[in-house]
Amino acid sequence: MRTARQILADARTVAVVGASRDPLEPAHWVPGMLQEQSWRIIPVNPHAVALFGEHVYARLADIPCHVDVVDVFRPAAEAAEIVREAAAIGAGAVWLQPGIVSTEARRLAQEAGLDYVEDTCIGTERALSQMVVGGDTPPSPVYRGVVPCIEPEPGPVVPAHSAPYGSGRRDRRACRHRRDRVRRVRASSAVAAGVAAEWAAG
Question: Domain spanning 4-129: which superfamily?
Answer without folding.
Answer: NAD(P)-binding Rossmann-like Domain (3.40.50.720)
